[in-house]
Structure formats: C-alpha cells, structure tokens
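User: My collaborator sent over this chain with a note saying "see what the structure looks like." That's all I know about it. Can you take a look?
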Amino acid sequence: MSLTYLDAIREAQHDALARDPRVFIYGQDIGKFGGAFKATKRLAEEFPGRVLDAPISEDAMVGVAIGAAIEGARPIVEMQFADFSSVGFNQIVNQAATHFWRTNVPCPIVIRLPSGGTAGSGPFHSQSMESIYAHYPGLIILTPATVEDAYHMLLAAVGCTDPVIFCEHKFLYYHLKADALPDETLPLGKARIARPGRHATVVAYSAMVHESIRAAEELAKDGYQIEVVDLRSVKPIDTDTILASVARTGRLLCVGESFPWGGVTAEVIARVTTEGFHLLDAPPQRLNSKDTPIPYHPNLWKAHRPTSPAIVNELRRLLKY
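Assistant: Without extra context I'll predict from the sequence alone. Here is the result:
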C-alpha cells in the first residue's frame, strides 16, 4: 500500500508519540477533528491526553510549547497554515530561538508549517515562510520534498534539541506517494542529488524540486543533462554539495516558491559567488514567485509561482550564455 506525503507526516507523529512519552501535539482542532488537513487523524484516540486542542492564538500555542519544552517535554505545534505563524512570531524568534543562548537550557520544540500554495488558496493561506525564519540564529529550518523525508526528517526534528521549523508543502500532501519508507535517510543539513547531470545545476527545495525535475526531463529531450539538488534543509544549508554540483556543471539556477526579495535562492547565489565564483561559466540565476501577494484565481496562481515550463525557459537562457 502506498503512502502519501501527508500519511508520512501522520505516521511520523504517531511513531514519535509511541516512542517517547515526552512528546505531545498541540494545535487548533487537532484532537477529535484531526486537524485542518487531517495530519493528526485518530491520534487523539490512540494517545489520550497527548494530542491537545489549542485556543485560536498562535502566540499562546508557541508560548505553551516553549514552557513545556524547557521543563523537559517534546512538543509538536501544528499551525493550520504557515501564514498564521506570524501571529506567534515573537515567541518563535525572540523566545524559542534565543532561549538556549540566554540560559543554556535547550528548547526542543517542532513547529509544523503547512506551507506553499494550492489553487484558490489566495494570499492568506499560501505563503512560504522559510526565508523569514532562516534569518534568525537558533532555529533549524527543514523543507522536505519527498514522502521519505517527510517521515524521517519529522522524527529527526522531534529528536533535535534545537527549535525546528518544519515546512511541509500542502500541494504535496496528496500529490506525492511512495511505496515504502526506507529505514535510513540522509542526516539533517545534508542536501540530496535528486537528478544527476552535467550541463547546469538547479538548486531547489520542497515542491520546487519536482517542478525542477520535470523541467530537467523536458530538456533531456534536447540532450541536456540537468542536475537537480534538493536542499532538504534550508538552515543549516549544505554549501559543499551545492558547490560540488556547480563544479561539475558550471551553471546555476536557484528555484524557490517564496517571494524573491531576500530569499533562500538569494542566499544560495551569494554563497556560490563568494566561495565558488571560479567555478561559474555563466552568471547564476534565480526563479521565485512574483513579488506580489499570492492571487486566488487558479490561472493567476499558476502564473505567479515557478512551474516546470518557466524553469525550462530560464534554463534555456542559462545554457545559451
């Protein structure tokens, strides 16, 4: 039986609860209702008193989790949408991120952010917040792009002593499936070569990995071999794997669904130009969503975010340089 990306997240939470009595889950409507996307479906019945409904206050949710974590618990906080985490921003960046550095007491919380766009979701339910949180020291930012990583990286996040922002992409919840979950995976902070190549490197993460692979498959019809690097983790970021790929290909395109200004793609290009300028045969490029609020209409949304045809066009320009 195949597992979806959402199944993997639910299974990881189940296993975390089963293995460690310190783990509990806290969020809005996650108990009997099972959460906005059913990521905690049936967990409240199996683990009574450990899958807890929260008030409609993201600020309070994160505050409770921080208090529990510094007293020895391992809380998982579910935000209904990544966008809503901004209500708890103070608690996340001023309390959780800094706590260990102020007190020498760890703050091991996981905050799950259903991220990215889906057709018709509009500006309040489609944002990608990873670049914002990556700006702050003390936070780990994970962006799994596969079913396997959704499972293993969430379990690893629960075991981490640092606060973790777990950016799971809503578009992948039902669109992505796997036949089984492997026993082992790459460690946190290690990127993955999702597709090998030699003519150009695409660095992507989350749902954009799959758009990039489709673009690479299209260009393969013309004889181009495009290497796709799946970051997996935005912070820490695996600069060594990125540089090694650029050394093989000489060309770099960074793709992200978040807004372009000050994003992950800009950070990747900054690192490559600073540490690997001599490896480049062409100016590095980036492709992000448009620098506007995210539109409701499905056709406008498709034009707003990077898609495989847009990635193909950018790569063709890069390859011709």
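A starting point for your reply to your collaborator: The chain has two domains: 3-178, 192-320.
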